[in-house]
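In the previous chapter we treated chains in isolation. Here, by contrast, the input contains two separate entities that must be folded as one system, with a combined length of 999 residues.
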Amino acid sequence: MGQQRAFWLRVRGVFVRRKAVEFDAELESHIAMDVEARMRAGASRDEARREALMRLGGAEQARQAYRERATLPPLESFLQDVRFALRQMRSAPGFTVTAVLTLALGIGANAVIYTLVDSILLRPLPYAQQDRLVRIAGTNSPLFPKGWIRELGSHATALKAVAGYGADAESNISDTDAPERVFGATVTVNAFDVLGVRPALGSFFSAQDAIAGEDHDVVLSYGYWRQHYGGDASAVGRQMRVDGVSRRIVGVMPAGVHFPYADTQFVIPVSFKGGDAFDPWSIFDLRGFGRLADGATTAQAQAELRRLHAVLLPVFPFRMPDIWASDMSVVPLLESQTGAMRPRLLLLFGAVGLILLIACANVANLMLARASAREREIAVRSALGASGKRLAQQLLSESVVVGLTAGVVGLGAAIASLRIFAGLLPADTPRIQDVSLHWGDVVFTLCASLFAGLMFGLIPSLKMAGMNLLSTLRMGGRGLAGQGSRFGISKILVMAQIGLTVVVITAAGLVLHSLYRITKVDPGFRTDHVVTAEVALDATACKEKGRCQAFFGAVTDRAQGISGVESVALVDSLPLSGRADNYVFDAEDHPRDARQGALLATGRVVSPGYFDVLSLKLVRGRLLEPQDASGATHAVVVNEHIAQRLWPNQNPIGKHLLDVVDEKTPAVWNQEKASIVVGVVRNALEGGLQDGFKDEVFLPLTTERGQPVMYAMLRTRATPTETAAGLRNAVASVNSLVPVTRVRTMDDLLASSVAAPRALAVLLLGFGALAIVIGAVGVYSLIAYIVSWRTREIGLRLALGAQRWQIVMSVVRESLFLALAGCVAGLAGAIALSRVLHSFLFEVSAMDPLTFGLVPVLMAMVAVAAAWIPARRAAGVDPMEALRAD
Amino acid sequence: MGDKTDVWQGTLALMILKTLETMGPQHGYGLARRIEQTSGDLLQLNYGTLYPALLKLEQEGYVRSQWGTSDNNRKAKFYELTKAGQKQVRRATADWEQTTEILSRFLSPAEEA
């Protein structure tokens, strides 16, 4: 207690000097009393005073001892150092601005990327004990029927509970006349209990909601509730129409919970039809997640689920292939959400880490140069009794002050630019809406700048503290010849800088080259002048037989009449959108027994115009035609890829494919019901530019295949805006209540399908440029410093008849040598990292000769440019003045 | 060196506290004289070390100080014990007695032998 109190009083004493002033009076009164007493004993005044002072051990010593007790000497000397450092920084503004700015750039870049890493990868999900939540998925069977989720939950012991959620889907919401397209999802009724979240308002689903017919409830997201009900508590209990079904609002999710998807605005319960044995098993539409039981690990849970697989598979009321869901994996929920973004962000984090090191080396060099210039000052101070430790401490505090100043500037820059950086990431980046600066990020930044300060301060301060002060004082400044060896550390630092810069720009170059390759990929279809839009009937619309087909048929007809439109198509999932349904089928000549899984391909339900709109070339047979819509022809079109795989070197025309809608019946080949391949089209990259050709089956839009949500695709000469307006009118003229949303051109889709590699390339390129700038400053300042040291030598050479261009060459040669050595080290580093980089590259080797060849050329140019001004200055030296100086 | 000072500092603090307890409020000079007298003039107190020791006790909350007037009508700073200081006197006295008692057990048999 007492000691703590004393400590804080002493800290206070450092800043409040009242005590020390008061002590002067106390001391004076003490001496007066002592003198008086001694005079009373017979001493003369002078004698008494001398004795009194002697007994005190000297007035100044007493004051000193008192001051040391009143304050904290280490803190005081530290503050002294800081004040001294600030004075030094003010007196050398050029140094200060260069050091602080280059370091601030490095720290700022780190602060931004760390904030992104923290916001997206590290920060816990807003659920109770979120690290116990896991995602359950099979690699080739990501979707489970609700019965499977239920069985997993009741059998697994390593999992406390298992829940499921459906696809991120838009629904028509109408509490007024014009329906609105709103994202929602289905969830099992236990989902929120598993997450461990409490409703902000009302309640979540009850067990009752799992029974079909009693499930007309809906839970809103916090954002949707605020936006559409103004945060009114009476919203709970009201009705709202979701896809034509009236549902009661029972509760509101808490703020900050975006579940299951970032854009989810409402969730509705998954319900079971009592007495229908097939109902729990027929639709494969749920993704699984769960909460680990206490003490269980993800590995245990995964092992148990794989064991349970064999036990639970026979629970299906029909025969399931053995491989289905046999490879279920259990991964932490957070990890499963951040997925592909994780390695990209970590790569960027690595890049900015290197940039910080480059900046540190820069400042270390500047400090070294300044320390040499201050050698005499240091030598004098040391001669006056400052210990080596004290001097090192002082120099170190100087660099820490520079580091922290740069940290504050960098943090400010990071705060100002965070939004811009977040905007550079692809829009579908997980948790992108949660990106914000937290205290942890500020602490990280300040720690990084402190670390940077210590790092770049250590070399100069050690060097200086160990300096031979005698020789410095004797030499009285600089010798005639440049002291070659004294630049040793500086040169190594600059080479290291260039090496690190080379690593960063090589990575940037590789990713850029890879992006270039991606953009040069021929998708196999034309994306220009195609406008797409979503046209959505209520989810239940197709239950009225023929209604969907009739509606979309009418829309197609009217859309043909829009001015500028050349052709019109409908498709159930757009190419390059990343979404497509699986077509599960058996193929002619490929018999299978019931234990095997059926064949899979990407299936697109299309209107005949699809091939025309995208200019997909026919290779054999015929394309789909209007008469195929009746279903009587059983026609399908496939791509070359699947034709080659199923029937190599045979004519695929006339071969049969049999839909495997569900597995209620064992696999029995029924040629009567099968579809017939009528045409083969050229391979196209509809799944994505980087994914290679896939098996594709194009199915005609028949009555059975009618779907409530279709995408219209219009090849047009008009602008997207005009075309969209035309389409809205056309749809409204068929049914005024059907919304037309998400208008995008195919070119937009193409661009956003490569948004992730583009964002990575843009950011890495920016950081590469930053690395070059900071590295160039490093080269420049070292060369300039060397030139200034060698002024006399250069003067002497000129006087002895050297040509000015020879001087220029010698300076540039020095710079080029540094760059070359750095390049060798940097390229070696890049080769060492090629395994890491490999996974980010598309059709570019991690040791791409083009990149590896261009980077040294670029670095050589930087080296020459950085050496140019010092070289010119060196050449401009006046021999007479240089020799006369000093 | 350091060790000696520490012991000295510790014993000086106890001497100050004990003197203040018996004599009541005192100024620095009076305290110093009193300590010398109590020691039978065996102790040569460096007056310069007294004030940091007093400041330390004040920082720890065992004494408080106040400006006043001395017997000779001179302005002086007076120190007095606080409640915590009174407790500290008892605690430190007990500690010291125990220490000396232990030490004397080591020292007396040596004298006999």
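Confidence is low (pLDDT under 50) at residues 1-7 of chain B. The beta strands of chain B are 26-27, 63-69, 75-81. Compare these points with the single-chain example from earlier in the chapter.
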